[in-house]
Amino acid sequence: MSELILALLAGGGVGLALGGLGGGGSVLAVPALIYLLGFSPVAATTASLIIVAATSISSLVAHARDGNVRWGAGLLFAAAGIVPAMLGGLAAGRIPAPVLTVAFSVIAALAAWRMLRPSRPTDSPVRPARAAGAGAGLGAVTGVLGVGGGFLAVPALVGVVGLRMKAAVGTSLLVIIINSLAALATRTGTADGLDWAVITPFAGAAILGAWDGKRLAAKISGNRLQHVFAYVLLAVAAFMLLDSLI
Q1: Cα of 3 vs its chain's centroid, Å
Q2: Nearest to residue 96, comparing CAs of 140, 142, 144?
Q3: Inter-residue contact 111 to 152 (CB < 8 Å)
Q4: pLDDT in tens, 44-69
Q5: Reduced to 3 states, what is the DSSP secondary structure of residue 193?
Q6: Is the pLDDT at 19 greater than 60, yes or no?
Q7: Which ranges of 93-193 would DSSP assign to H, the alpha helix?
Q8: Using CA atoms, how far apart are residues 49 and 147, in angstroms rounded to an integer?
Q9: How far apart are alpha carbons 85 and 238 in whole angstroms?
Q10: How far is CA 47 from the centre of its chain?
């Protein structure tokens, strides 16, 4: 199968996840870029940030039109992650590839676990320190591993900030964009040699897939969609971990 077709298929899957769940797409993007399209782990995490940022911008427009973006909460949450994301981006190029792969598999498994155990809105007042801590941790993960972090941002925005699920999904896209761009700002050295003939169609398919994902989410139970995706992530995490250890 040609690289173009693989890029289009993988991009469509990433877009479906981002559009339907507000996160999780980059957790699929990185292994797809490594195992299907031959990217190195560092190049894959950099390319993933580009793809996820572009896709999230497109998805954010649709969610904002529906009134599902809480701009103030999103900007405050993302602000805490900007510096950690930039520092993580600087560190990413110095981490050995096997370590990066193992760390990524752990994050993928964590993403699946959080999707199988969704957080619930809380009526307790927002604690700025907890929100800042969650935002900083999310930024660091984004910078090092090249994941947008929506799978962590959504439950944090629900459980820590107190947003309802639809608002958390829409707002998480704003957080993903800011963290991804901050991480990319310090990854200029790892952008050398990226295969734009793969990244461009991948990103294009992801943008189109995100619109389909949003429509799919309106027709299928959110819990069912999350559970199916969580099991896919568990399989991906197990494969990557075994591959890095064998």
Answers
A1: 23
A2: 144
A3: yes
A4: 888 888 888 888 888 888 888 888 89
A5: coil
A6: yes
A7: 97-116, 128-145, 150-159, 165-185
A8: 7
A9: 26
A10: 12
Whole-number Å distance between alpha carbons of 184 and 190: 9
* Strand, helix or coil for residue 161: coil
What is the distance between the alpha carbons of residues 150 and 170, in angstroms, rounded to a whole number? 10
Q: Compute the 3-state secondary structure of the chain and give helix, strand, coil in percent, each to the nearest 5.
A: 80, 0, 20
| DSSP 8-state secondary structure symbol assigned to residue 23 | S
Q: What radius of gyration, in Å, describes the C-alpha atoms of the chain?
A: 16
Distance of CA 31 to the CA centre of its chain: 13
Output the six-digit token pair for 22.
């507000």
| Higher pLDDT, residue 148 or 245 | 245
Model confidence band, residue 221 (pLDDT cutoffs 50, 70, 90):
low
Token pair of 83, please? Answer: 């510096």
Interatomic CA distance for residues 147 and 18, integer angstroms = 12
User: Cα(207)–Cα(176) distance, rounded to whole angstroms?
Assistant: 15
